Amino acid sequence: MTPISLADDGDESEGDDGFEDMGEGLGTVSAWLLGLTLAYFGWKRALPGIRKHLKTTEQKDKLKQLNTWNKKVLPIHTLLGITALITGAAHGLMMDEGGFLLWTAIALMGLLSVSGGLMRWKWPPREVKKGARLLHMQRLMSAVVVVLLLVGHEMV
Ligand code: HEM
Q1: Does residue 4 fall inside a structural domain?
Q2: Which letter, b or e, does each residue of 114-142 get, where b requires 16 or more Cβ atoms within 10 Å of its Cβ?
Q3: Number of domains in the chain
Q4: pTM of the predicted structure, to 2 decimals
Q5: Which structural domain, as residue segments, surrounds residue 53?
Q6: Domain presence at residue 55
Q7: Interval between CA 116 and ligand 1 midpoint (Å)
Q8: How far does residue 147's CA lie from ligand 1's centre (Å)?
């Protein structure tokens, strides 16, 4: 026979728990996506060194492969950034507690996505593109996002 303690350990808020669990899971997914989005920074720094090495050692096939892969890196950065924003916002909406710092981080991720988009799309005038590049590439905003997320999560 099943012991009573095991048979009756559920409560009425099981549905709520499931919702919160899913919210937490989305937060983890979003954190990974943001980390991978930021890895683009490291990739760009590493690329010239790898290229130089392959050129000096005359590994032409590998150099070709590297160039093919490199063409895919920016679209991947774009997709990762947008998905990090969407999953992060959904995570925030699903959790009971939030806070100004965390929503500011989401707003900045939105700004990064829009400025990144303006850099990539063909239509904006040169001035708009220049402004978007300035916003997106100075790295300070990316660093502020990470700090706000870390501090904001300590506070909830
Ligand atoms: C919220 C997430 C995002 C973060 C934290 C982020 C951060 C960064 C960082 C750190 C760099 C590298 C800057 C450097 O090399 O010094 C970068 C470059 C770039 N990002 Fe993002 N980004 C995000 C989303 C996006 C999105 C959604 C797009 C496009 C729609 C985008 C488009 C670009 C472009 C076009 C570059 C420059 C490419 C180049 O000239 O090499 N980013 N981003």
Answers
A1: no
A2: ebbebbeeeeeeeeebeebeebbeeeeeb
A3: 1
A4: 0.88
A5: 24-155
A6: yes
A7: 6
A8: 18
